[in-house]
Hints:
This protein is α+β, with helices and mostly antiparallel strands and 135 residues long. The chain folds into two domains: 2-93, SH3 type barrels; 94-128. Helices cover 24% and strands 35% of the residues. The chain has a six-stranded mixed β-sheet with strand order 5-1-2-3-4-6. The radius of gyration is 21 Å and the shape is extended. The chain starts with 19 loop residues before the first strand and ends in a 13-residue tail after the last helix. Keywords: Cytoplasm, mRNA processing, Ribonucleoprotein, RNA-binding.
Amino acid sequence: xxxxxxxxxxxxxxxxxxxxxxxxxxxxxxxxxxxxxxxxxxxxxxxxxxxxxxxxxxxxxxxxxxxxxxxxxxxxxxxxxxxxxxxxxxxxxxxxxxxxxxxxxxxxxxxxxxxxxxxxxxxxxxxxxxxxxxx
Length: 135
């Protein structure tokens, strides 16, 4: 059967139909669900979809349901090993808790970036998008 399907982007998806997959999107989101169907543009339909949010060794799942994914937004897609999935040492927490922790980390990162830019400015460097050390 595989010899009849040319190895193209969409042709290589045939083995994933009706399997649980992890999809990493261009914007960084990670979604998990059952791969149901696809077309010649590698657009695909998933059901029982959750968006998985990670923070260090913790995670939370946000229910989405049914999702149609445009092929151009996919960075990677792969089958999940159902046995190995249970062996991952992550602790599940609530979506509210993980969103709070992610927001705190992003706020700290933004503050650190401002401090870094100020220090670099003192030594003659400037932030991106301005005149200075660029040619």
